[in-house]
Amino acid sequence: xxxxxxxxxxxxxxxxxxxxxxxxxxxxxxxxxxxxxxxxxxxxxxxxxxxxxxxxxxxxxxxxxxxxxxxxxxxxxxxxxxxxxxxxxxxxxxxxxxxxxxxxxxxxxxxxxxxxxxxxxxxxxxxxxxxxxxxxxxxxxxxxxxxxxxxxxxxxxxxxxxxxxxxxxxxxxxxxxxxxxxxxxxxxxxxxxxxxxxxxxxxxxxxxxxxxxxxxxxxxxxxxxxxxxxxxxxxxxxxxxxxxxxxxxxxxxxxxxxxxxxxxxxxxxxxxxxxxxxxxxxxxxxxxxxxxxxxxxxxxxxxxxxxxxxxxxxxxxxxxxxxxxxxxxxxxxxxxxxxxxxxxxxxxxxxxxxxxxxxxxxxxxxxxxxxxxxxxxxxxxxxxxxxxxxxxxxxxxxxxxxxxxxxxxxxxxxxxxxxxxxxxxxxxxxxxxxxxxxxxxxxxxxxxxxxxxxxxxxxxxxxxxxxxxxxxxxxxxxxxxxxxxxxxxxxxxxxxxxxxxxxxxxxxxxxxxxxxxxxxxxxxxxxxxxxxxxxxxxxxxxxxxxxxxxxxxxxxxxxxxxxxxxxxxxxxxxxxxxxxxxxxxxxxx
Length: 589
What we know:
The protein is an alpha+beta fold. The protein is 41% helix and 21% strand. The chain contains 16 helices and 16 strands. The relative contact order is 0.09.
């Protein structure tokens, strides 16, 4: 018998339920299609904006370079923000798997769009810098124009800080790798833009005052010679006083380290507790050694007091630059001609000032005269307005990030504007996200042999949570017989001719400690001295190297692990140093 199925009528309530179910399905499919189409469009816009900004932020040495790409990026980011900012998209953020992808895209679009809204005003600033509008007809700097940029720079800085905080609140832990990578890169680009806006804001706050907008100012500039290492760069061989008055600069005095009276006498001030066992009193006795302490806030006041005793002038601040910084300034000014007939360029400044001069002039007084003439020629080019303003901004940004330009102001409120920047030349800070290790080099030979030294330093986190640090030195000097006695030191301080004696100071973060150390290489057996620098453990490694020899120090350091780990070290002459593949994490004693 064929079964029969009875048909029963569908009641009103059931019809309503079926209808609602169909509607939900239709709406759900529609929402999926809506999100898919808008998501694809938003992704294209975000990718285009990221590509446009990446093209300039990867340059690294142009703090305002990204403003040229704001127009193209702004349209893409605004479109992506509109596409990802609606109730359907927001509701889908709670859906498993797809939700984190949508949230990341929406976060990047919203933060980028809001940030660029405040950044567009900086395009006018960038145009003014590149066109030279900051210069006055008499070769000075327009301090009123510079001050007028402060509100725009402050607004951009605040907006970017808010955008970075917004992006930091987005969790991309469950996002797909390519989505997370895109989000991370967007956050990095935003961080670079923030750094540029922050630098401009600090500049508008401080530089107007330093240029004498309110009253005449005086600054002592100390020139570091990288051929004889000190912690912050090199021995101070020459100094100059620069005066400013309403944007105009003048070079009022110059001196060499040999001109300072009472060198080696009583210290001009007491060093902070813990530093004397590491450096003796030399930083407070000799102008040459004020940069031996790896904290410019300690050395700069010492230099200021030495200059006051020498000349009677109490300057408003101290600025330190090295030979590489001088060569970078020449990129902006172009070549300058010296009284000797030499033409100083950005490519030959370092070898001429730190090598050739010692071969040409055996008498240190003649060497000093040559240095002073080179300094005066570069300064005149800057003071007379011969520097391309845009190129000058790039050069200063680069040497500042490399710690080749240091600034200290005697007025605490002015110096506080530089808090947290590399311009302060302070010991590296560690926080909950980043651990910083300091590696500082000091010559013990009494020579200019560091022109031939090469270095390398790297750190990595070990499996047990400790940090592994590796530091390598190599002496690449030629046959000592081919070098002037002033370069080798002539054995005057007990170091054999041609060899280099280097003191490497490793400064740890507060509450960190060295668990193990191991030195290896072809040099003489090294020496170690432990010390303390205002609550930080410091290890001094002394190593003696003949030409062709190298030595390596491996440390295991107990310190709470963080996301980031970096090494801050003495800026030396060469951009390409000894490659270091990593720091070993095997136990070594």
